[in-house]
DNA sequence: ACCTATCGTTTGTCAGACAACCTATCTTCG
DNA sequence: CGAAGATAGGTTGTCTGACAAACGATAGGT
């Protein structure tokens, strides 16, 4: 908690910040593109994220996978079902713990992910087309690091937030 | 289309890009925080965005407002209803066109927005706490410019996208 | 052998996104 | 002026995705 205590800076930023709206805009467009691009991959971008983690990282179990992606366990169930039906991953019983399932990628899964990543990277450059080339990479990098920090600090505790009404006390001349 | 044609660069980016996931992560956290913060404002972040545009920009009609925010018109109907009931904005008949409604902010609405913007800016710094101070501003700025460009180029046309299967031809050794 | 916690799965509920339709009004043309 | 099509705003219904709750199976501890 040493990263410049935000309880202190009132930050009268210039008014047109719109950060939330901007993020939503970019994400929506990303989603549209990628959904279009990966419509053959079982659950589109969802399946893509999951497949990417399965291929690139050594994730012990489904539960760990859910934690890694910060998604609900119940989602994993059917997405993994369909990815497995498509022959991209396999769900093997864990020899150490018969409750758990080990999810491993097939060769076909790796090839598919590689192709999907090419396309997605391409689509991302298109989505960020409003930014000059080198700034896209900066943006991607900042997003990744911000997200990682957020994910690491999972609990949304915030002692600074005194939850009071934004509305003035209604004694206005009305 | 002079901004470095993305049809050409295959862009074998380092594997852990995860841009979509990162954006979703940051946006989700932003949303959680702001929703918590603005729970007294009629539709939370939705009402906040709308109120901000009404206050800061001269937007002729509801339809223009919807276009400005890239949201569905049907959403505006009830959000504006509730913002008006809270005394933050007013919906006046347009003297030039009796079909149209002019949405204007009240003084109370301006005060409320000012307070909300203070809090949101604060929350945003907290959400981006994983980034060093000066990079947060960079990130915000890049997001805003990317979003603006996306919004300007509304039609999602993309001649580069040849919609073919990501999956290999299934001749794998299975 | 029992009791409790955990893994994966299933089911149900709820909110938000979006399309289709409706009414009132404007515009155009005869 | 009057009819026809277009447009602004509003209403309704449908569909999807997120999430909580409950369940069966298994592990770990006593």
TrEMBL record, chains A, B:
One Pfam family of this chain: MarR_2
SMART domains xref list: HTH_MARR
Domain HTH marR-type: 16-148
Domain of life per record: Bacteria
Any one GO MF annotation of this record: DNA-binding transcription factor activity
PROSITE patterns: HTH_MARR_2 (PS50995)
InterPro entries hit by this protein: HTH_MarR-typ (IPR000835), MarR/SlyA-like (IPR039422), WH-like_DNA-bd_sf (IPR036388), WH_DNA-bd_sf (IPR036390)
BP GO annotations: response to stress
Identification of the protein by name: HTH marR-type domain-containing protein
Source species: Micromonospora noduli
Upper classification of the organism: Bacteria, Bacillati, Actinomycetota, Actinomycetes, Micromonosporales
